[in-house]
Design goal:
Layout lengths: L1 E4 L8 E18 L2 E8 L2 E10 L10 E10 L5 E4 L9 E5 L8 E2 L2 E10 L2 E16 L2 E15 L3
Antiparallel strand pairs: 1-2, 2-3, 2-4, 4-5, 5-7, 6-9, 7-8, 9-10, 10-11
């Protein structure tokens, strides 16, 4: 369900969670600060990936968090999602760090593949990206968030 990776016994440096939420859905909302995703009650399966890297006490602003969310029908078995499926599955990524963009962005390319290996349990691999453009005054910047990982997704 989750993994800890640590260089020593003093604390966590990285953690990963691969979670399936049953009877759920994704609520996508927008405000002045951007787009945000929330898991709510519903009739779908919501898949949630969270990676956290703790801040290095010697470096300012060094920690980061990665989030990937998508939803599928409750009776989902093996599946493969590609770029054309990301709108329907509400596939969103977020990189939370000391960076200019920290809200959720819809995935724009990549692939998510899964094999169902038990009741509410999937072995999922993903390599996804969210490409976007931001405007800062008169400057325009193209950015990309890219995540690649795999793990066993199951209820928490």
């Amino acid at each position: 369900m989750s993994c800890d990776k640590s260089d020593d016994a003093t604390g966590r440096e990285e953690s990963v969670e691969y979670i399936v939420h049953e009877n759920s859905g994704l609520k996508i909302s927008e405000n002045d600060f951007g787009t945000f995703v929330e898991v709510v009650d519903g009739d779908k399966l919501v898949f949630e990936y969270t990676f956290s890297k703790a801040s290095d006490p010697v470096l300012a602003d060094s920690g980061l968090d990665k989030y990937l969310y998508f939803e599928l029908d409750a009776n989902t078995e093996d599946f493969q999602l590609t770029t054309n499926d990301f709108d329907v599955s509400n596939t969103y990524l977020r990189l939370s760090c000391f960076c200019p963009v920290t809200d959720f962005r819809r995935a724009t390319s990549g692939e998510i593949t899964a094999q169902k290996i038990g009741n509410l349990k999937w072995n999922i691999s993903f390599d996804v990206a969210a490409d976007f453009t931001i405007n800062e005054g008169e400057e325009e910047f193209s950015e990309s968030i890219e995540f690649k990982d795999s793990g066993i997704f199951q209820p928490q």
